[in-house]
C-alpha cells in the first residue's frame, strides 16, 4: 500500500507544539529578572539552568520538524515560509537563553530601584508581544481548515497588526531603558554598563523575533 | 473433458483475481473515508460489499467487453478458439501473479494495468504485432494519463468552490445547509445516469439518453429534497466560535462523505471488477458458442462472479488492509475527503461508461493531489508520483512477458 505514503504529517501541528515550548521558555524571563534584581544567586542559577533546558527541548522539536520536511512535499503554504517561522520560533528561545547566560557572566550585577522598575516594564512589554504572537500561531490549525481565507483570516491579520504595534511600543520602551542606563552611567563600571546594555538589547530581541515570525504568517494570508 | 478442466481453471483464476481486488484494491477506494472517520471500519466493509457488487453488476459490462474483445482482434482466432481461450487464461493468471508479487513488494501497481499488459502480451505471442489493436491500446494508455489529471481537476475546482462558498463564510453551517442538497443531487443524478443510460438490457436498464437523463434528474431531485429536509436538523448557533462552527461543518460533511464512500465503491466495482470478469467472459462465451464471438453481451452471472469474488476478498483479507490504510490517512477531514472522492468516482464512472479500463487508485491519487493544490491538505508527499510512474513502466512489460510464457506453457499442456 505504498500509495498511501502520499499522506504526510501536517507541518502545522509541530509548529504549534514548538511555539508552546518556546512561549514557556520566554515566559521564564520574568522570574529570571526577578531573581537577578533581588540578588538571589541560588534562584538565578536554577532559572538559567531551567531556561537552558527548555531551549534544548525546543531545539529537539525544531530538528525533528526539519528532518520531516524534505523537498517535494506539497503544502498549502510555501515550505520556505514554514521553515522561516520555525527559525524565528527558535530564535525567541535562543534570545531568552542568551539573556539568561549574560546574567551569569558577572558576579554582583545590581541596579537602583528606579532602573529596576523600568527593566521590569520592558520585560512585561516584551512578553505581551510573545503572548499575542503565540496566539497567532495557535490559530494556524483553523487557518488550514478554512484554507487560509474568510473572516478567520481577517481576524488573524488584525492580530498580526496588533503584534506589530506592540512590538513597536516595546522598541520605544527599550530605547527609554537604554537612555536611562546611559544617563546613570556614572553608577556603573564600564564592564557592568556594557553587560546591562547587552542584556537590555537581547531582551528586546525576543519581541523582534516574535514580530518577524508573525509577519511570515501574514504571507500565508496574502492572496 | 479438457474443456471442463480449462473452464475450472478459468473460473478459479477469475475468482482469484476478483479476490485479489477485494483483498487489496478496495482498501484504496475506502481509505479516505475511514481515515477521515466519516465511516467506521464495519460500515466501510458493508458499504464496499454492497456497492462494489452493484457497480460490478450494473455498470461493469462495458469495461469487461473492452478487456475481453477490444485489445486483441477476436476475428484472427476464428478457427482457433482453443488458442484464444488459453491466451485469456494466461492473461488472467499472469495479472494475478504480478498483483500478488507487487502487493508483497509494496509497489503501487494497478490491477487494470496488469490485465491490459497481460492481454497485450498474449496477442503479441499468438499472432504477432498485428494481432494487437494498437489504436485501442494507445487509447487505453492515454486514458491512464488523462484520468488522474481529470480527477485532480474536478477535485481542485470542487474544493476551491467549497472553500469560497462554505469554509470562508462567516456562517459556514448555514452555507453548508444551502449547498449540500445540490451536491447530493449531483451524485444521485450521475450515479443513476451511469446505469440507466446504455445499461443492462436484461434488467431493462437500457433507456435512450433523453429518458435516462429525466430519470436521473428525478432521482437527483428526490435526493435534493430529502437533504433539504435533513439539513433542517443542523441549527446555526451564531454564538459559537468559528472553531466550533467549522467543527459542525465537518460534522455535516461526514454524512455527505458516507455518500461519496458509496459512490467510490460503486465506481470501483464498475471499473475494476472487469479486470477479473473480462477474461472470464471471453473464455466462457467462446467455449459455449464453440467459436470466437465478436459481439456478445457479457453474461450476467460472470459479473456476479466478479462481484462475489470481491466481497469474499473483502471479508477474508480486505478489511485488515482497509484498517491499516485508514489508520495511515489521518490528516484528511470529511470536507476534503468528500471532494477527493467525488472527483475520483466521477472520473472512474465516466471512463467505465466509455469502456476505458483505468486505475481507480491512480485516479484517487490525482484527486487527492488536486485537493492539495487547492490548499486543502496539510502535507502531501509528491515523491509517490515517481513510484507510481515507475510501477507503470514495470507493470506492462512484466505482465506481458509472463502472459507470453504462460500461454506457451498452457498450449504445450492442452
SSE layout:
The complex is a heterodimer of chains A (223) and B (414).
Chain A (H helix, E strand, L loop, with lengths): L11 H15 L2 H9 L3 H27 L5 E2 L4 H24 L10 H26 L1 H6 L4 H34 L6 H32 L2
Helix pairs in contact in A: 1-3, 1-4, 1-5, 2-3, 2-5, 3-4, 4-8, 5-7, 5-8, 7-8
Chain B lengths: L1 H34 L5 H19 L1 H10 L10 H25 L5 H17 L6 H34 L4 H25 L12 H23 L10 H31 L1 H16 L10 H29 L5 H20 L6 H14 L6 E2 L1 H31 L1
Spatial gap, N to C terminus of chain A: 37 Å
Shape of chain A: elongated
Q: Total number of helical segments of chain A?
A: 8
Overall number of domains of chain A: 1
**Which outline of chain B best applies?**
elongated
Question: N-to-C terminal Cα separation of chain B, in Å?
Answer: 11 Å
Largest interface: A-B, 31 and 48 residues
In total, the number of strands of chain A is 1
- Biggest pleated-sheet summary of chain A: none
Q: Give the mean pLDDT of chain B.
A: 88
Under CATH at level 1, the class of chain A stands as Mainly Alpha
Helix content of chain B: over 70%
User: Any low-confidence stretches of chain A, pLDDT <50, length ≥5?
Assistant: none
What is the alpha-carbon Rg of chain A in Å? 19 Å
CATH topology of chain A: Methane Monooxygenase Hydroxylase, Chain G, domain 1
Identify the notable features of this structure and list them briefly.
heterodimer, A: 223 residues, mainly alpha, Methane Monooxygenase Hydroxylase, Chain G, domain 1, 8 helices, 78% helix, 1% strand, B: 414 residues, elongated
Q: Can you offer a commentary on this structure?
A:
The complex is a heterodimer of chains A (223) and B (414). By secondary structure, chain A is mostly helical. Chain A has a single domain (10-221), classed as Phosphate transport system protein phou homolog 2, domain 2 (Methane Monooxygenase Hydroxylase, Chain G, domain 1, Up-down Bundle), CATH 1.20.58. In chain A, 78% of the residues lie in helices and 1% in strands. Chain A contains eight helices and one strand, in the order H-H-H-E-H-H-H-H-H. Chain A has helices at 12-26, 29-37, 41-67, 79-102, 113-138, 140-145, 150-183, 190-221, and one strand at 73-74. The radius of gyration of chain A is 19 Å and the shape is elongated. Chain A starts with 11 loop residues before the first helix and ends with a helix. Chain B is an all-alpha fold and 414 residues long. Chain B has one domain (2-171, 236-413). Helix content of chain B is 79%, strand content 0%. Chain B has helices at 2-35, 41-59, 61-70, 81-105, 111-127, 134-167, 172-196, 209-231, 242-272, 274-289, 300-328, 334-353, 360-373, 383-413, and one strand at 380-381. In chain B, helix 3 (61-70) crosses helix 10 (274-289), helix 4 (81-105) packs antiparallel against helix 10 and helix 4 packs antiparallel against helix 14. The longest helix of chain B is centred in the N-terminal third of the chain and has 34 residues, at 2-35. Chain B is elongated and about 80 Å long. The model of chain B has no long low-confidence stretch (mean pLDDT 88). At the A-B interface, strand 1, helix 6 and helix 7 of A face helix 1, helix 6, helix 9, helix 11 and helix 13 of B. Strand 1 (73-74) of chain A pairs antiparallel with strand 1 of chain B, so a sheet runs across the interface.
Amino acid at each position: 500500500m505504498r500509495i498511501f505514503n502520499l499522506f504526510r504529517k501536517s507541518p502545522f501541528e509541530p509548529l504549534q507544539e514548538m511555539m508552546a515550548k518556546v512561549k514557556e521558555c520566554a515566559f521564564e524571563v520574568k522570574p529570571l529578572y526577578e531573581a537577578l534584581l533581588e540578588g538571589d544567586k541560588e534562584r538565578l542559577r536554577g532559572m538559567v539552568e531551567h531556561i537552558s533546558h527548555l531551549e534544548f527541548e525546543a531545539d529537539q522539536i525544531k530538528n525533528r520538524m526539519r528532518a520531516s520536511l524534505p523537498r517535494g512535499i506539497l503544502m498549502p503554504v510555501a515550505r520556505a515560509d514554514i521553515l522561516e517561522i520555525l527559525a524565528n520560533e527558535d530564535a525567541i528561545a535562543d534570545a531568552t537563553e542568551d539573556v539568561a547566560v549574560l546574567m551569569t557572566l558577572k558576579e554582583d550585577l545590581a541596579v537602583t530601584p528606579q532602573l529596576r522598575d523600568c527593566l521590569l516594564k520592558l520585560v512585561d512589554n516584551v512578553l505581551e508581544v510573545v503572548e499575542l504572537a503565540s496566539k497567532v500561531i495557535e490559530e494556524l490549525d483553523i487557518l488550514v481548515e478554512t484554507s487560509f481565507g474568510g473572516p478567520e483570516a481577517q481576524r488573524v491579520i488584525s492580530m498580526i497588526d496588533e503584534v506589530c504595534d506592540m512590538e513597536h511600543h516595546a522598541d520605544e520602551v527599550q530605547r527609554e531603558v537604554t537612555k536611562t542606563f546611559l544617563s546613570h552611567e556614572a553608577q556603573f563600571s564600564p564592564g557592568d554598563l556594557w553587560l546591562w546594555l547587552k542584556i537590555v538589547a537581547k531582551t528586546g530581541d525576543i519581541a523582534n523575533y516574535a514580530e518577524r515570525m508573525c509577519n511570515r504568517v501574514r504571507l500565508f494570508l496574502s492572496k | 473433458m479438457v474443456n471442463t478442466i480449462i473452464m475450472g481453471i478459468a473460473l478459479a483464476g477469475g475468482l482469484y483475481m476478483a479476490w485479489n481486488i477485494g483483498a487489496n484494491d478496495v482498501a484504496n477506494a475506502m481509505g479516505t473515508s475511514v481515515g477521515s472517520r466519516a465511516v467506521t471500519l464495519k460500515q466501510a466493509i458493508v458499504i464496499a460489499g454492497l456497492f462494489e457488487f452493484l457497480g460490478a453488476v450494473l455498470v461493469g459490462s462495458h469495461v469487461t467487453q473492452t478487456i475481453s474483445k477490444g485489445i486483441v482482434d477476436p476475428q484472427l482466432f476464428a478457427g482457433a478458439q482453443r488458442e484464444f481461450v488459453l491466451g485469456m487464461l494466461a492473461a488472467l493468471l499472469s495479472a494475478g501473479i504480478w498483483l500478488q508479487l507487487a502487493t508483497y513488494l509494496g509497489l503501487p501497481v494497478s490491477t487494470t494495468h496488469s490485465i491490459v499488459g497481460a492481454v497485450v502480451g498474449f496477442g503479441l505471442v499468438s499472432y504477432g504485432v498485428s494481432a494487437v489493436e494498437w489504436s485501442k491500446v494507445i487509447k487505453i494508455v492515454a486514458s491512464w494519463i488523462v484520468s488522474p489529471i481529470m480527477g485532480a481537476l474536478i477535485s481542485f475546482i470542487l474544493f476551491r468552490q467549497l472553500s469560497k462558498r462554505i469554509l470562508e463564510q462567516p456562517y459556514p453551517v448555514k452555507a453548508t445547509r444551502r449547498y449540500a442538497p445540490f451536491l447530493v443531487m449531483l451524485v444521485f443524478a450521475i450515479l443513476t445516469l451511469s446505469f440507466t443510460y446504455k445499461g443492462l438490457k436484461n434488467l431493462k436498464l437500457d433507456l435512450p439518453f433523453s429518458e435516462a437523463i429525466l430519470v436521473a434528474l428525478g432521482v437527483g431531485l428526490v435526493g435534493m429534497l430529502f437533504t433539504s429536509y435533513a439539513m433542517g436538523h443542523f441549527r446555526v448557533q451564531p454564538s459559537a466560535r468559528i472553531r466550533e462552527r467549522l467543527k459542525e461543518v465537518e460534522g455535516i460533511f461526514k454524512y455527505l462523505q458516507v455518500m461519496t464512500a458509496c459512490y467510490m465503491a460503486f465506481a470501483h466495482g464498475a471499473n475494476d471488477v472487469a479486470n477479473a470478469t473480462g477474461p472470464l467472459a471471453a473464455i466462457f462465451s467462446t467455449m459455449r458458442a464453440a467459436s470466437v464471438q465478436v459481439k456478445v453481451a457479457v453474461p450476467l452471472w460472470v459479473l456476479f462472479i466478479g462481484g462475489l469474488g470481491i466481497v469474499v476478498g473483502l471479508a477474508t483479507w480486505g478489511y485488515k488492509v482497509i484498517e491499516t490504510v485508514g489508520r495511515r490517512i489521518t490528516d484528511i477531514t470529511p470536507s476534503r475527503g468528500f471532494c477527493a472522492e467525488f472527483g475520483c468516482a466521477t472520473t472512474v464512472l465516466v471512463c467505465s461508461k466509455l469502456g476505458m479500463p483505468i486505475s481507480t487508485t491512480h485516479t484517487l491519487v490525482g484527486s487527492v493531489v488536486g485537493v492539495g493544490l487547492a490548499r486543502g491538505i496539510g502535507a502531501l508527499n509528491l515523491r509517490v508520483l515517481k513510484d507510481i510512474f515507475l510501477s507503470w513502466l514495470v507493470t506492462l512489460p512484466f505482465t506481458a512477458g509472463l502472459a507470453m510464457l504462460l500461454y506457451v506453457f498452457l498450449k504445450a499442456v492442452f
